Amino acid sequence: MQPADSIICLKGLEKSYDLGGEATVRALRGVNLTVEPGSYVAIMGPSGSGKSTMLNLIGCLDRPTAGQYFLGGLDVSRMPDDQLSEARGGRIGFIFQSYNLIAQLTVLENIQVPLLYQGKDLLAHRERCIKLAETVGLGNRLNHRPNQLSGGQQQRVAIARSLVNDPILILADEPTGNLDSRTGEEVLELIDKLVAQGKTIVLVTHDERIALRAHRVIHMRDGQIEREVVNEHKRSQTALVA
Q: For 59-88, what is the mean pLDDT?
């Protein structure tokens, strides 16, 4: 059983890739991790450490070879594809390094994309989408397309899009990797505000300075959690803001 109040509970999670013949890569080796609601967790590690594999599994973009994964109390480890897709779309918001916006769509339409995948009425949620655009500072850019926006503005659209289905978990994969320092700081401050509002965020980064903004920093190596650093001061600051 998983802890009743956890958003993420990984139990002995393993992931192997068969490269053909007798070659097998063990990308994850029995990972155990629990993330409580309202937590801000950063995952770090060198190339090949397993951090991207773990993010893909947590995001229900891939399946574990062995072990269990509970997402908000739901065991998604062995779900059929259609149920896994539904859990991913309804419970998880994604923020990618490359934004992953659709070039032909406007800001408002890009924010609405997850609603389309969930079969929801766009008109009924239009005001919520506009409000999300305003929240990230793009209320005056609703009809602009991605090529009319700066990198920072595109990432703000991606953040608004990640919130549209009111997910229980937001995953951010190097969210400032394509941004300059000042714009990256603005995006990180926006993520800090989401945490202060009670959102649960797991972020992958190679930057120690970014990781130190989180409540917990998970260091990975060779497919395992090598060590964890808990930032009690940061957790206390978040509690005071909230």
A: 93
